[in-house]
Design goal:
Length: 122
């Protein structure tokens, strides 16, 4: 069994910063692509940023220049550094791993965390 746990959400003023973490647990051999999604109230879930195992990144136009995705493969953890936050960034942020290989064989596909709430408000 593998699990993703997000942390780092909270209340922040416009223009502020937060750093989200997504830690994977279990007998993990390797994690491949990792992504951050968000879902605002009344809206569909949207892709915010992605990173390959090798570190290639991509991000949505709405967050380019403000959000940075990174990862530490040794710690099985991904991060989302969010700067210059705006009220429209308010959402539940979810971590996703498209493939997790476990020790001894076996693969988990499309693993999701439980989400962490980010609220940007004065």
């Amino acid at each position: 069994q593998v699990q993703l746990v997000e942390s780092g959400g909270g209340l922040v003023q416009p223009g502020g910063s937060l750093r989200l973490s997504c830690a994977a647990s279990g007998s993990i051999f390797a994690i491949y692509g990792m992504k951050w999604y968000r879902q605002a109230p009344g809206k569909q879930r949207e892709l915010v940023a992605s990173i390959t195992r090798g570190g290639y990144t991509n991000s949505a136009d709405s967050v380019k220049g403000r959000f940075t995705i990174s990862r530490d493969n040794a710690k099985n953890t991904a991060y989302l550094q969010m700067n210059s936050l705006k009220p429209e960034d308010t959402a539940v942020y979810y971590c996703n791993a498209d493939q997790i290989a476990v020790v001894g064989g076996g693969t988990y596909l499309e693993v999701w965390g439980q989400g962490t709430l980010v609220t940007v408000s004065s």
